[in-house]
Structure formats: structure tokens, C-alpha cells
Design goal:
Length: about 150
């Protein structure tokens, strides 16, 4: 019975389209658009690290490290840390566009705007897919290029 309930809830969940570019990630859902800059501000060390802001010019109340998510270099970050940072960003975006907790997991279609050359690499596509699933996506598909 619980499986049937979850299936019905997921069926009722709106799909989300995500258009990825180097400077902006556009989340589309039910006629709404949320444009979010792929920049995280994090504070703390090790397991105490946490995101305190998203975007390029937040009003910070404490010192934080700026992380540009689609920069060519990740400042020597491990694959595990990259995955965790991307998952935090995607979860934030999904929560913003859906407007509630991710009790119901949306299906996500990802399209790139041909401005992130590293998206052509299969390993980054796999990392983004895994990060979206960690962030709450039920299913992630790639749909080619977005019109710019």
C-alpha cells in the first residue's frame, strides 16, 4: 500500500526543467521560472561545512568561501566534495521552484545552453545526475540543448 501511495504522489508531482549555463541555472515548473546563479557561499571546515548563501552578491553576516560551481577548476576539490556541493545547490533550486519540501520527488529534465564546455564530458553529466538524485529528483533525463 505504501508503494502505491508513493507512486500516486510522484505522479502528481510537477516535472521540473533545468537549463544549465555557466552564469545562470534556470528552473522551470508549472509556468514559473527561478533563475539562480551557480555560486555557493560556504563556511566552516570538514564536517562542519554548511551553505550560508547562493548567488553572487548575498548579504553575508560572516566570512565565507565563494564557490563557482561550473568553473573550469574546482580548487583541487575531491569528486565527493564536488558531488556534495552540487547536491546542495540542486536541492536549493528544486525547493525554490516547487515551493515546498521535497516530500514528493520531481522528474527533472536537464538541458544545457552550450555555454558550459565541461557539460560535454560524460563524467560531469553523471555527477550532475547523481547530485540531482541526491537532492530529491525522482528521475533525471538529459534533453539536449536549450534555446538561448
Amino acid at each position: 500500500m505504501a508503494g502505491l501511495f508513493a507512486t500516486i504522489l510522484n505522479w502528481l508531482t510537477p516535472d521540473v526543467i533545468v537549463e544549465v549555463s555557466r552564469d545562470i541555472v534556470a528552473f522551470h515548473c508549472q509556468g514559473r521560472i527561478e533563475n539562480i546563479e551557480p555560486v555557493l557561499w560556504i563556511t566552516g571546515e570538514g564536517r562542519q561545512r554548511r551553505m550560508i548563501a547562493v548567488g553572487s552578491n548575498p548579504a553575508l553576516t560572516q566570512p565565507a568561501e565563494r564557490i563557482q560551481l561550473f568553473a573550469a577548476d574546482w580548487n583541487g576539490r575531491s569528486d565527493h566534495e564536488r558531488l556534495a556541493l552540487l547536491a546542495v545547490f540542486w536541492r536549493y533550486g528544486l525547493l525554490r521552484i516547487i515551493g515546498r519540501k521535497l516530500f514528493i520527488r520531481p522528474e527533472v529534465l536537464v538541458r544545457d545552453r552550450r555555454t558550459v564546455p565541461t557539460l560535454e564530458k560524460d563524467d560531469l553529466r553523471v555527477t550532475i545526475t547523481r547530485a540531482l538524485e541526491m537532492a530529491g529528483a525522482h528521475e533525471v533525463t538529459w534533453g539536449g540543448h536549450a534555446d538561448v
